[in-house]
Design goal:
Length: 228
């Protein structure tokens, strides 16, 4: 079975880390592939970034389906063009945010989302509303996330703050938060940390393996129109 991880930016600096994390969550018979867009923006941190890349995400997802993909993960916590992909494609399409928040709701009652910068805090506060207790950020641009020690230090501070205000599960609000000792943080602060890559791989695997996909009642196929 083939699952494609579609990273909706044109830079591939996170691809190796994404695949390394994803492999730890996949079944032995799953072929994971990581693909980037051919254009758009280098990182998605604002609603504007999402708008710029949305059409490209749908086009690339359609291409992956034609090439034989059994399921697609839109690899950005903003779930860019996710609903459009669900409407257009006939294979399961899963977003990082939707799968992570759903899983967090199973194991906890008070969810904290920790993301990159203030742009994303505003975005997720609007999108999640009453679903989470807290949305906070590391204060680090996504393009600087390869500085793992800096990211881990900032993340530990946010995790401690989340626990202090009563959160019982932490969701990483960016798929590029990688290379961190999450087990150490969980043990130190007594809180579960949801990694988006693990949540999305598990969800997409389950759907594809069981012949399930997005409901055509919820996501009816779009009318074909002339596009100029």
């Amino acid at each position: 079975m083939r699952i494609d991880i579609l990273v909706p930016v044109y830079v591939d600096m996170w691809n190796e880390g994404i695949l390394k994390e994803a492999i730890t969550s996949k079944a032995p018979d799953v072929d994971l592939r990581v693909t980037n867009l051919d254009g758009g923006v280098p990182s998605m941190e604002s609603a504007y970034d999402v708008a710029i890349g949305a059409r490209l995400v749908v086009e690339k997802a359609q291409q992956l389906e034609k090439e034989g993909s059994d399921g697609i993960i839109v690899y950005c916590f903003k779930d860019p063009a996710l609903e459009a992909c669900k409407e257009k494609l006939d294979i399961p399409v899963v977003g990082l945010r939707e799968s992570s928040i759903a899983l967090a709701g199973i194991i906890g009652d008070s969810i904290s989302v920790i993301t990159s910068r203030k742009y994303s805090v505003s975005y997720y506060s609007r999108a999640l509303k009453d679903k989470v207790k807290s949305v906070t950020c590391l204060g680090i641009p996504v393009l600087e996330f390869l500085d793992y020690s800096r990211v881990e230090k900032a993340l530990e501070e946010r995790v401690a703050e989340s626990v202090n205000i009563g959160c019982d599960v932490v969701v990483l609000g960016c798929g590029s938060i990688l290379g961190v000792d999450f087990k150490r943080l969980e043990k130190t602060y007594g809180v579960s940390i949801i990694r988006p890559v693990a949540a999305a791989v598990a969800a997409c695997d389950f759907l594809a393996r069981n012949g399930l996909k997005q409901s055509r009642i919820a996501y009816p196929s779009p009318e074909i129109k002339e596009i100029k």
